[in-house]
Amino acid sequence: MKVEAPDNNLGPYLTKKLKGQKEDSTDIAKATGIHVETIRKMRNGITKSLPAVESYKIALFVKDSIEIYLKEVYPNLVLQYTDKPISRNVKDGTSDIGKLIFGLEDYNLDILAYKTGIKRDRLQRLTKLGVDRIETYELALIEMAADKETGELFKVLFKGIKLK
After folding, report:
1. In the prediction, which pLDDT does 97 show?
2. Rounded to two decimals, what is the model's pTM?
């Protein structure tokens, strides 16, 4: 079952960024390689799910850092949980110390799934898919859950991306 992407402010963001300029969705399409109709649907809110690579290209086009783009387009994006999940090793009779010890594990798919609300199966699939398949909100949530700086993983994944 696919999880619905959260609401975003891409339309108002682009309207604000392009105000007073002679650029529009057609110019974004030419520079980014994203189909113009796709951009229009994204701007009008018809398409809520924004591929991370396309968000990165749009940020490059409007000359904003990915950090600013993410904060503007997803101002209300938060982790589902910020505490550590209870380890699968914890049983009914496990003491508080045992729970603490079992909680001292590195980030893995279970922890990321718990914190982000992204299903573990989806995270598992993402480990095998190309970078063009991860959604903007998914990568932003993973950054938050892994205590990364905003935009840090975007810069790593898309460092070779250039506009036309």
Report:
1. 53
2. 0.80
Q: In CATH, which superfamily holds the domain spanning 10-73?
A: lambda repressor-like DNA-binding domains (1.10.260.40)
Domain residue spans of the chain: 10-73
CA atoms of 97 and 105, how far apart (whole Å): 14
Phi, psi values for residue 108, rounded to 5° = -140, 180
> Which residues in 42-60 are b (16+ Cβ under 10 Å) and which e?
bbeeebeebbbbbbbbbbb
Asked if residues 116 and 28 have their Cβ atoms less than 8 Å apart, the reply is no
**Could you tell me the CA-to-CA distances from 127 to 52, 121, 130, 131 in Å, in that order?**
15, 10, 8, 9
Interval 88-112: pLDDT, tens = 666 777 666 555 555 545 567 788 8
Question: What b-and-e string marks burial along 128-145, b requiring 16 or more CB atoms within 10 Å of the CB?
Answer: eeebeebbbbbbbbbbbb
